[in-house]
UniProtKB/TrEMBL annotation:
The protein's Enzyme Commission number: 6.3.4.18
Name of the top EC class for this enzyme: ligase
Species in which this protein is naturally found: Pseudothauera lacus
Name this polypeptide is given: N5-carboxyaminoimidazole ribonucleotide synthase
GO CC field: cytosol
Subunit structure: Homodimer.
Example GO BP: 'de novo' IMP biosynthetic process
ATP-grasp domain boundaries: 108-292
Gene: purK
Lineage of producing organism: Bacteria, Pseudomonadati, Pseudomonadota, Betaproteobacteria, Rhodocyclales
Known catalytic reactions: 5-amino-1-(5-phospho-beta-D-ribosyl)imidazole + hydrogencarbonate + ATP = 5-carboxyamino-1-(5-phospho-D-ribosyl)imidazole + ADP + phosphate + 2 H(+)
Residue sites binding ATP per the record: 104, 143, 148-154, 178-181, 186, 209, 262-263
InterPro entries, sorted: ATP-grasp, ATP-grasp_carboxylate-amine, ATP_grasp_subdomain_1, PreATP-grasp_dom_sf, PurK, PurK_C, PurT/PurK_preATP-grasp, Rudment_hybrid_motif
Function as written in the Swiss-Prot or TrEMBL entry: Catalyzes the ATP-dependent conversion of 5-aminoimidazole ribonucleotide (AIR) and HCO(3)- to N5-carboxyaminoimidazole ribonucleotide (N5-CAIR).
Length: 384
C-alpha cells in the first residue's frame, strides 16, 4: 500500500486530473502533474506542475524519481510514456489497457474478440476498405481511430461516396465506420477495479448529448433495473479482461431496447462527476485508492443527482453554440445558481472560454429524482 504523505503522479492536467488532485490532497497525498499547458486546471492546484511534453524523458525521469505511482486522466498519453514509467514505478492503468481504449479499431476489435455487445463496424484504412464495407453500415458514422473527443473527428455519412469524401477529409487516417444506430437513450457505467481484482461499480448514469458533447447526466439512470444490471456486468467484464486497475468509464447505447457498448475511457468519466456530491466515495477517490492499493471505497449513491456541463459559449452574451455569433465575453452570473437548493457549482479554472470547451459543471442533489431534475433544468435555463 502506498500511504500518505507519498507523492502521486498524474499524466494530464485537465479537469479530471484536477479532481484527482483534490481527492488525493484530502487523503493526505501530494501530487505532481505533467502537462505541457502552463495554465492547466490540475497543474494550478498540484504540488508541482511539470510543464513538459508527455515524451520529455527528463520530465518523466523527474516524475519517476519523486512519485510512488503514476496514473492518467486522458487516453491519449503515448503508450511509450506509460511503458517507460512502468520500468521504475507502478503505472495504473497499464499501457496495454490504455492502448485498447485510445484506438477505436483496437477498442471495437477487443469487444468483438471477447463476445461483448457492440454495434456493426468496419476498420477503414484505405479507399478499398470503404469500397468493400458492408452496405448495411450505411447510413453510418466515420470516426478517426485516434484523438477524437466530444464528437470531433466524426462525420455522418449517408453513402459510400460520402464515406470516401469524409475519409479523404481526415487525410486517410485510420478510421472506424459504424452503423448509425437509432438511440433510445445513452447510459454509462463508471467503476473502479483494484490490482487484486476487486470491482466496485457506481449506479449507471443516463446521458444526453448536445452537438456530440455530454450535456446532462441523470443518476441513477431511469433505465430498467435489468438493463442497468446488464450494463454493470458488461462493464465489469471489460475491466476484468483488460486487467484494468483504476477508474474506468464505459459508454453504452440503448438501441431498440438492446445494450451495446459505444466506447471505453481509461480514466474517470464526465458522466461520473456527480459521484463527488452524491456518492459515499467519488470516482476520483476510487482512482486514488486503486492506484495506491487501498481497499476500494463504498460507491453507494446517497442522493439522486443531475449533472449539467457548463460549456464555453456561456461566457459570451447570447453565445451561439456554433461560435459564429458570439456576443461580448463576460463571466456568467453565478448568483442564480447558488440560490438553488442542493446545487454545487464546480469551475475548472480554465483561463479562456471557447465554445464547446468544458469550463465547469454543476450537480444538483436531493431525495426526489423528479424535483432534482426540475431544479437542474431551471438552473440551467437561468444562466444559459
Ligand atoms: P466521443 O469520443 O466524441 O465521445 P462517441 O463515439 O462517444 O465519441 O460519439 C459521441 C456521440 O455521438 C455519442 O455519445 C452519440 O450520441 C453519438 N454517436 C456516436 N456514434 C453513434 C452511432 N454509431 N449511432 C448513433 N449515434 C452515435
Ligand atoms: Mg463518447
Amino acid at each position: 500500500m502506498i500511504l500518505p504523505p507519498a507523492t502521486l503522479g498524474m499524466l494530464g492536467g485537465g479537469q479530471l486530473g484536477r479532481f484527482f488532485v483534490s481527492a488525493a490532497h484530502e487523503m493526505g497525498y501530494k501530487v505532481w502533474v505533467l502537462d505541457p499547458d502552463p495554465h492547466s486546471p490540475a497543474g494550478q492546484i498540484a504540488d508541482r506542475h511539470l510543464v513538459a511534453a508527455y515524451e520529455d524523458f527528463a520530465a518523466l525521469d523527474q516524475l519517476a524519481a519523486e512519485c510512488a505511482a503514476v496514473t492518467t486522466e486522458f487516453e491519449n498519453v503515448p503508450a511509450g510514456t506509460l511503458d517507460y514509467l512502468a520500468k521504475f514505478i507502478p503505472v495504473h492503468p497499464s499501457a496495454s489497457a490504455v492502448g485498447v481504449c485510445q484506438n477505436r479499431i483496437a477498442e471495437k476489435s477487443f469487444l468483438a474478440d471477447n463476445g461483448l455487445p457492440h454495434g456493426p463496424f468496419a476498420a477503414i484504412r484505405s479507399d478499398e476498405d470503404i469500397a468493400e464495407a458492408n452496405a448495411g453500415l450505411f447510413p453510418g458514422v466515420l470516426k478517426v481511430a485516434r484523438f477524437g473527443y466530444d464528437g470531433k473527428g466524426q462525420a455522418r455519412v449517408a453513402s459510400r461516396e460520402e464515406a470516401l469524401a469524409a475519409f479523404h477529409g481526415f487525410n486517410r487516417e485510420a478510421c472506424v465506420l459504424e452503423k448509425l444506430l437509432p438511440l433510445d437513450y445513452e447510459v454509462s457505467v463508471v467503476l473502479a477495479r483494484s490490482a487484486a481484482g476487486e470491482v466496485r461499480a457506481f449506479p449507471s448514469g443516463e446521458n444526453s448529448h448536445r452537438h456530440g458533447i455530454l450535456d446532462v447526466t441523470i443518476a441513477p439512470a431511469r433505465a430498467s433495473a435489468c438493463l442497468a444490471d446488464t450494463a454493470q456486468q458488461v462493464a465489469e467484464q471489460i475491466a476484468a479482461r483488460l486487467g484494468y486497475v483504476g477508474t474506468l468509464g464505459v459508454e453504452f447505447f440503448v438501441t431498440r431496447g438492446e445494450l451495446v457498448v459505444n466506447e471505453m475511457a481509461p480514466r474517470p468519466h464526465n458522466s461520473g462527476h456527480h459521484t463527488i456530491d452524491a456518492c459515499v466515495t467519488s470516482q476520483y477517490d476510487q482512482q486514488v485508492r486503486a492506484l495506491c492499493g487501498l481497499p476500494l471505497g463504498e460507491p453507494r449513491q446517497h442522493s439522486a443527482a443531475v449533472m449539467v456541463n457548463l460549456l464555453g459559449e456561456l461566457w459570451y452574451e447570447g453565445g451561439a453554440h456554433d461560435g459564429t455569433q458570439l456576443g461580448k465575453y463576460r463571466e456568467p452570473d453565478w448568483s442564480a445558481l447558488h440560490a438553488v437548493p442542493g446545487l454545487r457549482l464546480h469551475l475548472y479554472g480554465k483561463h479562456h472560454a471557447r465554445p464547446g470547451r468544458k469550463m465547469g459543471h454543476f450537480t444538483v442533489i436531493g431525495d426526489d429524482p423528479a424535483t432534482v431534475l426540475e431544479r437542474a433544468m431551471a438552473a440551467r435555463a437561468a444562466i444559459g
